[in-house]
Amino acid sequence: MKKSPVVGHFSAAITYVIFGLNIVFCRDIATESGIPPIILFTMRALVSGALFWLVSLMMPREKVPWQDLLKLSGAGVIGLFLPQLTFLNAIARTTAVDLSIINTITPILTMFSAAIFLKEPITWKKAIGVLVSFGGIIWVILQSDFHDGGADQTTAMGVTYCILNCTIFALYLGTCRPLIARYSVVTCMKWMFLVSAILALPFSLPLLPSVDFVAVSVTVWWEIAFLIFFATFIAYFMLPVAQTRIRPTLISLYGSLQPLIAIAVAIVAGKESLTLAKVVAALLVFVGVWIVTTSKKREI
User: Fold this and answer.
1) Alpha-carbon distance 15 to 172, whole Å?
2) What is the pTM assigned to this prediction?
3) I need a labelling partner for 264 at 20 to 30 A (CA). Which of 156, 207, 277, 280 fits?
4) What are 118-146's pLDDT values in tens digits?
5) Concatenated DSSP letters for 218-270?
6) Distance CA 96, CA 80 (A)
């Protein structure tokens, strides 16, 4: 039976709305909790992984050959471990607004990934869109203060982590669709999170004694709960649903919701302000993404 693309679009939209809220919450966690990014990721991987394994006990068991287990392990590295680690390091070194704007290049990077691995065509129109979007990213970089390491500043290292995050996640979207489509969401995620948790634990355990968990505020703990349950378990439950129903470039296009949500929440909450320079940068990036994603459309 053909899988409904409507479900795919809905799943992608909900996923990126959650990711948008997650940017603002992660910014608070990174600057106020004192919890290192690797420990925060380990908490996410352990709890969400346990939830996926628990759900799998209530479902028919799927046999996964060892060849595909190796592939799922690789998917766990480029779809969970590396993207989440680079994201958490980026958000500690950039403002929510700047990170949101830079993250909108993900559809363009996904386009390149899909072109290489899934043979989706690249046209001159797409190339022009790439140049326009990168103009916006360069504008963000030029407007950032790389000399002040304060909590309210974007740093060069923060931009680097952000671009790495976008690149790695685009690689995941552009390469793993055939693998994800072979198994249920729960089967894929339980193995991917298991591998991610195993990778993270050796880096996390030595840092645990230095973290004062008691000093973390109740508000930040609620934000961590959102991060673990909604931005990890629910979002990564819905993302593979989208991956099996619509093209990678269409999924990443929904990433446009992410900065809109993050910027709106950050401004309404009084955490950040939106300057004219950042509006110009955002418009350049969005126009470039629009040019890319409307170029030579293909069937979903």
Assistant:
1) 16
2) 0.81
3) 156
4) 666 667 776 676 677 667 666 665 665 55
5) HHHHHHHHHHHIIIIIIHHHHHHHHHTTS-HHHHHHGGGHHHHHHHHHHHHTT
6) 21
